[in-house]
UniProtKB/TrEMBL annotation:
Lineage: superkingdom: Eukaryota
PROSITE patterns the UniProt entry points to: RADICAL_SAM (PS51918)
Family: Belongs to the radical SAM superfamily. Lipoyl synthase family.
Catalytic reaction equation(s): [[Fe-S] cluster scaffold protein carrying a second [4Fe-4S](2+) cluster] + N(6)-octanoyl-L-lysyl-[protein] + 2 oxidized [2Fe-2S]-[ferredoxin] + 2 S-adenosyl-L-methionine + 4 H(+) = [[Fe-S] cluster scaffold protein] + N(6)-[(R)-dihydrolipoyl]-L-lysyl-[protein] + 4 Fe(3+) + 2 hydrogen sulfide + 2 5'-deoxyadenosine + 2 L-methionine + 2 reduced [2Fe-2S]-[ferredoxin]
One Gene Ontology MF term: metal ion binding
Entry's cofactor comment: Binds 2 [4Fe-4S] clusters per subunit. One cluster is coordinated with 3 cysteines and an exchangeable S-adenosyl-L-methionine.
Entry keywords, A to Z: 4Fe-4S, Iron, Iron-sulfur, Metal-binding, Mitochondrion, S-adenosyl-L-methionine, Transferase
Cellular location(s): Mitochondrion
The protein's name in its UniProt record: Lipoyl synthase, mitochondrial
GO cellular component, one term: mitochondrion
Annotated EC: 2.8.1.8
CDD domains: Radical_SAM
Biological source species: Kwoniella shandongensis
Cofactor: [4Fe-4S] cluster
Length: 393
């Protein structure tokens, strides 16, 4: 009895120990190709002898690295990494006062040259109304949002303070577009200009403004008559390319109207104001379209124009159509000067805020104002002499 129980238990244990085999609908092992081992993969490629044989591979066999679909960056567009005491000092001032610059936001290639100058020569283009724009242009790397942060009420004062520290003769302000504001930020820009003039009356101020689309014309007039010396607004490209390069809310005709209204408002207010714009090359424009753009700018009484090469800030932005050679930039400078522009800056690394151009404009404005003061003094002297002659008579 016990023997049979023991035998049964042993039999049960042996049955429980047997593996359970399940059947799946898989391919037969004979039809599956085993993965290659590491040394087998290496055997499929080149050997050491291929590298020392001296045989030149055919064009079809040659390996090409990099992005071959885009034109290569020419040597004349390469620039050094910015460094130096002046660069560090300006950056410290800006961060300490909570200010932003288009130099950094737009990844300008000239930042090392502009910020690295000596005392009184270094300059930065301060970007007003924060670092976030309501527009989304395909060439621009500034951050975008439908509802940016509220304006910093201390920014006009802080901007004036930073500029007064640098001891410059010429400063450039720019700004993001703020379509969310009733006046597009015109009062904020005008206030900044007024405070700069209060702290440094002799400094010349250039403002690169938004287009104030769908805002009253009084917004343009407010900025143009705020004590500004150079009113800048960029058309950026030719009319045909505008919808593909700029935000759809930005129009070529609107930009021309902004420049016209600024000059008109300043003239009516008795102020000597220069108007300025900038054109990017290398975005798909045609030669005859550039000629037409220059003609229409002169028709709108624009005084200064700059030409620069479009450079793609990131892979998310519009591709470069072509890299324009320095000789072509020289040609456009000659063409624009022949059409009567007061000053033309044209070159691969030229930007709308361009230090060499600023020095020229500064000298032009100072010369104009000195001549105006001399004429006014002569007029007063003449009036005085006439009054004296009448009194004697």
């Amino acid at each position: 009895m016990l023997a049979s129980i023991s035998h049964a238990s042993s039999s049960t244990r042996s049955r429980l120990a047997l593996p359970v085999i399940r059947q799946f609908a898989t391919a037969s092992p004979s039809t599956v190709t085993p993965p290659k081992r590491r040394f087998e993969k290496l055997d499929d490629g080149l050997t050491f002898d291929d590298f020392v044989s001296g045989d030149v591979p055919s064009p079809t066999e040659r390996v090409v690295l990099g992005n071959t679909k885009q034109p290569r960056l020419p040597s004349f567009l390469k620039h050094p990494i910015p460094t130096g005491a002046s660069y560090s000092a300006i950056k410290k001032d800006l961060r300490g006062l909570g200010l932003h610059t288009v130099c950094e936001e737009a990844k300008c290639p000239n930042i090392g040259d502009c910020w690295g100058g000596g005392k009184g020569a270094a300059t930065a283009t301060i970007m007003l109304m924060g670092d976030t724009c309501t527009r989304g242009c395909r060439f621009c790397s500034v951050k975008t949002s439908k509802a940016p942060s509220p304006l910093d009420i201390h920014e006009p004062e802080n901007t004036a303070e930073a500029i007064s520290r640098w001891g410059l003769g010429y400063i450039v302000l720019t700004s993001v577009d703020r379509d969310d504001l009733v006046d597009g930020g015109a009062a904020h820009i005008a206030s900044t200009i007024s405070k700069i003039k209060q702290k440094a009356p002799s400094i010349l101020v250039e403002a690169l403004t938004p287009d104030f689309a769908n805002k009253p014309v009084s917004t343009i007039q407010q900025v143009a008559t705020s004590g500004l010396d150079v009113f800048a607004h960029n058309v950026e490209t030719v009319e045909r390319c505008t919808p593909f390069v700029r935000d759809r809310r930005a129009g070529f005709e609107q930009s021309l109207r902004v420049l016209e209204e600024a000059k008109k408002a300043a003239t009516e207010a008795g102020k000597d104001l220069l108007t300025k714009t900038s054109i990017m090359l290398g975005v798909g424009e045609m030669e005859e379209e550039v000629h037409e753009t220059l003609r229409r700018l002169r028709q709108s009484d624009v005084d200064v124009v700059t030409f620069g090469q479009y450079m793609r800030p990131t892979k998310r932005h519009m591709k470069v159509d072509r890299y324009v050679q320095p000789e072509e930039f020289a040609k456009w400078k000659e063409v624009a000067e022949g059409m009567g522009f007061l000053y033309v800056a044209s070159g691969p690394l030229v930007r709308s805020s361009y230090k060499a151009g600023e020095f020229f404009i500064e000298n032009v404005l100072k010369k104009r104002r000195a001549e105006a003061a001399e004429r006014a003094a002569q007029f007063v002297a003449t009036q005085g002499e006439a009054s004296g002659t009448e009194a004697k008579a």
